[in-house]
Write a structure and sequence with these properties.
288 residues; alpha+beta; 2 domains; six-stranded mixed beta sheet; three-stranded antiparallel beta sheet; 19% helix; 33% strand; elongated
C-alpha cells in the first residue's frame, strides 16, 4: 500500500439532490441501491475546484456520499478510481480514470475510526483531500478488489514521461545572467521520472555501477546527448540515465553517434561501439 497515495472526494447528496451515478432514483434508500460494479476506463468520476487534484495523478480516490435517511445523516463509500487525467470545465476540474462503483455502497457510520476520520476530513467540508495520514484509509482499501489495487507503476511512468516530453519540446533553455551565467532547464520532473523508469540503473550497456545512497537507492545522473548550452532539449532521445563514470565520459569526450532517436542511441565512445535501447527495462542484476 506504500506505493499508492489515497484521497477522498465528498458528495453531499442532500445539497445536490442527486446521486453520483446516473439514473438512480434520488428517493431510494442507499441501502437498497444496486450498482453496476464493472471496471470502467477513462470515466469522469468527480468534479472539484481543488487544484491539489493536479498533484494527485496516479493516486486512488474514494468517493463518499452523504445523505439524510430516516432523520440520520448516513455516509457511504460509493466508488473508487485511479486518477489518470483531468479536464477543465469553466471553474471545475474533472478527474478521470479507471475505477468502479461498489455493487452495494458501504455504510461507513459504524465502522472503526470513522468518527475520527470524519473529524480529520473537516466533517467532509474540505472536499478533495489526501488521507494518507489517517488509518481509516486501510478500511477503505479493504473494499478495493485486489486486481484493481495491483498497479503497474511502469505503465504510469511511461505515460507521464511522454506527456513531459511533449511539454519539454516547447521549452528552450533560458539563459539568465546574474552573478554568473546559468541555464534554467525546467526539467526536474522528466529527469526524476526517467531515473525511476530504469530502476536507477545506468543505461550504458553492461554497466553494473552501484553507488547506494543512505536509503539504498543507486545513484545515477541524467545526461544530455546534445548539451543544453548548445540548445539541447530535455526530451526523449536526448536524455540518458548514466552512472557518474559514464556521464563524465560523455562530457569529456562526446560520443560519435550513428543513430539518435526516441528508441535507440548508438555510436562510438572512447573507441568502443555501443548501442542503447531506450525502451529496455534494464532488469539485469547489479553487482553489490
Amino acid at each position: 500500500m506504500t506505493q499508492n497515495n489515497f484521497y477522498i472526494q465528498y458528495h453531499n447528496a442532500d445539497k445536490l439532490e442527486y446521486f453520483p451515478t446516473e439514473n438512480i432514483n434520488f428517493n431510494s434508500l442507499i441501502s437498497e441501491i444496486i450498482l453496476d460494479d464493472s471496471i470502467q476506463k477513462e470515466k469522469a468520476w468527480i468534479y472539484t475546484t481543488k487544484k491539489t487534484v493536479y498533484k494527485a495523478k496516479g493516486g486512488i480516490c474514494f468517493l463518499i456520499v452523504g445523505k439524510t435517511e430516516n432523520k440520520i445523516k448516513n455516509y457511504y463509500l460509493w466508488c473508487y478510481f485511479r486518477i489518470e487525467g483531468y479536464e477543465e470545465n469553466f471553474d471545475e476540474i474533472i478527474a478521470k480514470g479507471k475505477g468502479q462503483d461498489l455493487k452495494r455502497p458501504i455504510l461507513l457510520n459504524n465502522l472503526p475510526y470513522f468518527d475520527s476520520f470524519k473529524k480529520f476530513c473537516g466533517n467532509f467540508g474540505i472536499g478533495f483531500q489526501n488521507i494518507n495520514k489517517h488509518d481509516f484509509k486501510k478500511i477503505l482499501c479493504s473494499y478495493i478488489k485486489e486486481p484493481f489495487l495491483k498497479y503497474n507503476r511502469e505503465i504510469f511512468i511511461v505515460k507521464e514521461i511522454q506527456e513531459l516530453h511533449n511539454k519539454m519540446l516547447l521549452i528552450k533553455p533560458e539563459r539568465k545572467v546574474q552573478e554568473i551565467a546559468r541555464l534554467i532547464r525546467n526539467d526536474r520532473k522528466i529527469v526524476t521520472a526517467l531515473k525511476e523508469l530504469v530502476n536507477y540503473k545506468c543505461q550504458f550497456p553492461n554497466c553494473n555501477s552501484y553507488i547506494p545512497d543512505k536509503n539504498g537507492i543507486n545513484y545515477v545522473e541524467v545526461a544530455h546527448i546534445k548539451p543544453v548550452y548548445q540548445g539541447g532539449q530535455s526530451i526523449i532521445g536526448n536524455l540518458i540515465v548514466l552512472c557518474p563514470n559514464h556521464h563524465k565520459e560523455f562530457d569529456l569526450k562526446p560520443p560519435t553517434l550513428d543513430i539518435q532517436n526516441e528508441y535507440v542511441i548508438s555510436g562510438i565512445l572512447n573507441g568502443k561501439n555501443f548501442e542503447i535501447d531506450l525502451n529496455n527495462n534494464y532488469s539485469y542484476e547489479i553487482e553489490q
